[in-house]
Amino acid sequence: AKAQGASGSRFDFTEVEAGVDETHHVAEGYDADVLLRWGDGIFPDAPEFDPTAQTPDAQNRQFGYNNDYVGYVPIDDSSEHGLLVVNHEYTNDHLMFPGIVKVEDGKLVVAEADENQVNVEMAAHGGSVVEIRKEDGKWRVVKDGAKNRRITAETEMELTGPAAGDPRIQTNADPTGRKVFGTFNNCAGGVTPWGTYVMAEENFHGYFMGELPADHREARNYERYGVPDGTYAWGKFHNRFDVSKEPNEPNRFGWIVEVDVEDPNSVPKKRTAMGRFKHEGAESIVNKDGRVVFYLGDDERFDYVYKFVTAGTYNPDDRAANMDLLAEGTLYVAKFAEDGTMEWLPLTFGEGPLTAENGFESQADVLIETRRAADLLEATPMDRPEDIQPNGSNGRVYVMLTNNTKREEPNPANPRVDNAFGHIIEIAEDDEDFAATTGKWEILLKCGDPSVAAVGATFSTETTKNGWFGMPDNCEIDAEGRLWVATDGMSPKKTGRTDGLFAVDTEGEARGTSKLFFRVPIGAEMCGPLLLPDMQTAFVAVQHPADGGEDWEGFGRPSYYEDPSTRWPDFKEDMPVRPSLIAITKQGGGKIA
Ligand code: FEO
Ligand code: CA
Ligand code: CA
Ligand code: CA
What are phi and psi of 407, to 5 degrees? Predict the structure, then answer.
């Protein structure tokens, strides 16, 4: 039955009721099954998960922490057999490690991680490649899949493109400036048209500690990125994360990483041509002229929206011919104008202000300091650009802007001061040419509770009290061109609801109507999402369940390993809460409608 009567809505499911509790909820008539949990083995020899005695060696053979981006590379074009690729964005010590927390005056005091814990964290970051297969309507992991792979903060990678080998990227351990170990804080991502897995390096600043040597040439560069930040203790045990010992190491992070999933021994490539910033994601589309266009968000308050256009063209008949498409191309940053037009400004050395006068001696310099280059081009400062998804079926591009409570000065594309709930911009590139340098834009949605006039939300009147959302983050366009939005940060205390996955109409009279399809347990954030090409499976990633559980009136207490606000998904006393990947299918089969 169709519970909501949204005129012309392209979504038929019965909406979930918004709320807060210990578990997840999916629309009636659908199953949401746990497929992979933090610590689940993804190789035949993986040790059983023992949360009280976790080791880096075990973690290297197990699914990592805080699953975020979810992609799928089909095997033989199947929507029932393929390689699942999943980012493991970051780790939450207080929920991972027994005994690391003390509660003092109702506040958590988290001890600094010890060497074993640091090494477990490093192994729990990165990504997983896992063969999966659907049998009798249910997904299972193929543990002996020949291409199964863990990528971690220690996996050997190659720097490619204009900044590779640059002196600013050379270190004591790597005088070539081309060989780097690991990736971390991989947030959203993408799968390329040629079937490689792209991982975006987002908040890399948190992994560096120490003080740069006095008058070091990277001081201005690092200040723009907030390096070092010292959230993680990695630098205590690994010199490369201490900028006083290895001052150039931060220049080797903040890139897009491309992984050839067909060869589990392939060396992942950091693609410097795509710029260095707090990369949120990298979703792409083959343009009508064959070049491939990637949309890239830089997730920080007042940072920018970018796109990258490959120099070469995609060859659908020869996978090998595409394997270095990301080594060369043009990076652009967006400037939005009041009249609804926009420009994409090239970040090209020697053009405009990107010259020696401003401290740029080469394209490598422009890329290493992408943000400063974009500042000089006077790009539009945005309200935290997250995932950006092109839609081949209507020629548009959807930009998630999650929030910005520090905004005091509005600009055309970010019209709300103190923007607590974020908004979504829809871009129409001129002539439906995704490589165009001009386009048009409008705001699809200002998010937040439409029943509170001061919020100024613009959901359609068909949107129910369950269907509105704030803080759009990851998003997806399904095979029928429909938009799905995952949220990050709806406060149970303030909104009476957890994060979730929302179906958003973009066409016709129903435009701006949103419905809640799935919601996460308390303390969690909604990631993924991905609908497979046959539309019969949706994968979603539940990140950090139980984190910040004190923010729900129903608990009113801190939440940590020994006393979490939920023990999702196992609900066993001897098992901590575990970030997990969920497969959603329709009961009895059929499309997600
Ligand atoms: Fe990892 Fe921008 O969220
Ligand atoms: Ca995100
Ligand atoms: Ca996406
Ligand atoms: Ca997120």
Answer: -75, 120
Q: Is the CB of 89 under 6 A from ligand 1?
A: yes
Q: What's the DSSP call for residue 302?
A: T
Q: Which among 438, 427, 364 is positioned nearest to 177, based on CA atoms?
A: 364
Residue-wise pLDDT tens digits, 124-181: 999 999 999 999 999 999 999 999 999 999 999 999 999 999 999 999 999 999 999 9
Distance 282 CA to ligand 3 centre (A): 8
> Over the stretch 30-63, which tens digit does the pLDDT of each residue have?
999 999 999 999 999 999 999 999 999 999 999 9
Q: Does ligand 1 come within 6 angstroms of the Cβ of 300? A: no
Q: Measuring CA to CA, how many Å separate 308 from each of 282, 326, 468, 504? A: 9, 9, 32, 26
Residue 121: per-residue pLDDT: 98
pLDDT average, residue stretch 409-438: 98
Q: What is the Å distance from ligand 2's center to 327 Cα?
A: 25
Ligand 2 center to residue 421 CA distance, Å? 14
**CB of 387 closer than 6 A to ligand 1?**
no
Residues 278, 296: Cα–Cα separation, whole Å: 10
Residue 386 near ligand 1, beta carbon < 6 Å? yes
Residue 538, phi-psi category: left (phi > 0), alpha (psi -120 to 50), beta (remainder): beta
Mind listing the domains of the chain with CATH numbers?
25-90+114-132+139-151+161-202+254-586 (2.120.10.30)
Residue 343, beta-bridge partner list? 335, 438
Half-sphere exposure in the Cβ direction for 421 (13 Å, CA): 19
Atom of ligand 1 nearest to the CA of 297: 2
| Ligand 1 atom 1: residue of nearest CA | 187
- For the question of whether the overall pTM of this predicted structure is more than 0.95, the answer is yes
d(CA 46, ligand 3 centre) in Å: 30
Q: From the alpha carbon of 386, which atom of ligand 1 is closest?
A: 2
250-257 average pLDDT score: 98
| In 46-203, alpha helices (H) | 56-59, 93-96, 115-124
Quick check: CB of 202 below 6 Å from ligand 1?
A: yes
Taking residues 495-513, what's their average pLDDT?
A: 96
Q: Is 201 in the pocket of ligand 1 (CB under 6 A)?
A: no
Q: What is the pLDDT of residue 553?
A: 65
Ligand found nearest the CA of 203:
1
| Ligand 3 center–CA 586 separation, angstroms | 22
Please tell me the residue having the least CA distance from ligand 1 atom 3: 187
Q: What is the mean pLDDT of the chain?
A: 96
440-449 in b/e form (b: 16+ CB < 10 A) is: bbebbbbbbb
Q: How far is CA 470 from CA 185, 370, 497, in A?
A: 23, 29, 11
pLDDT computed for residue 551 by the predictor = 66
Which ligand has an atom closest to residue 485 CA? 3
Long-range own/partner contacts, residues 48-54 (CB < 8 A, 24 or more apart): 51/96, 51/98, 51/575, 51/576, 52/98, 54/96, 54/97, 54/120
